[in-house]
Amino acid sequence: MRNFLRSSAAVLLAAIIVVLATPPAPRLLHRRTDWYREDAAAARPIAVIVAELHGAADRVELTFTIDAEGPGVDPLPGLTSVAGANLRTAEELDRLFGDGALRVLTRRLGDRAQHPGQIAISRRGKLPAHRIDPRGALRLFEQTEAEYMLAVTATSGPLPVGEHETFVFVNELPRLRVVTVVEPGGGRIAAIESLGEHELFPRRP
Asked: Containing H/E element for 10?
């Protein structure tokens, strides 16, 4: 009986140590959704941006996904296109990621120091599409033959208290900007902005 009690106490103590040693799971502080808009006079929405600010203990981090498919996304013109999916965006994500042309940098407002983040594939697959069969008939709401990189997810890295800008660079040009405000015990995503080629940002040395 004593051995059983000692064994049970040891198991309970080990469980308590594990619980105490396990860091708290990040909690969602704020979520914001917007469109990435084409760099053109019409500025059509060609991708969905879903940004989330997560916090755990003294660590706050921004993640955001750029998705070629989603509500409000304008398709390419043509009979085979389906609203809510943009084939050109998927093709460009596939090409740019494969070429290593996408880069994430964060800086604190008022500070020129730039801190690299990460960007990774978050979803591959086929896009919804109408198709024209060999007889010339239009077949509605099928899928593309090829698979594409449909979404990528960027991560800022740890964000201290203050206001920050996180950029996605495409071939050394800033094309997306997410502004975050981190406060003690919380934070929010203040803005998501599509940037044109005219926007200025200090280049990497």
From this structure: helix 2-21
Q: How many CB atoms lie within 10 A of CB 91?
A: 16
Q: How far is CA 165 from CA 16, 159, 179, 180, in A?
A: 40, 10, 5, 7
Instruction: Concatenate the DSSP letters of all residues of 121-171 into one string.
Output: EEEEEPPEEEEE-TTS-EEEEEE-SS-EEEEEEEEEEE--SEEEEEEEEET
Token pair belonging to 203: 């280049």
Domain ranges for the chain, please list them. 26-194
Q: How far is CA 91 from CA 88, 112, 144, 148, 193, in A?
A: 5, 33, 12, 7, 22
Residue 177: how many CA atoms within 13 Å on its side-chain side?
A: 19
Residues in the chain: 205
What's residue 183's pLDDT?
92
pLDDT value of position 57 = 66
Q: What is the separation of C-alpha 204 from the centre of its chain, rounded to a whole number of angstroms? A: 22
Burial per residue of 179-200, b for 16 or more beta-carbon CB atoms within 10 angstroms, e otherwise: bbbbeeeebebeebbbbeeeee
Q: What token pair was written down for 24?
A: 């708290």
Averaged over successive runs of 10 residues, the pLDDT of the chain (205 residues) comes to: 54 45 76 92 91 88 96 86 91 94 94 92 90 72 86 95 96 94 93 76 41
Residue that has been written with the tokens 């596939």 in this structure: 94
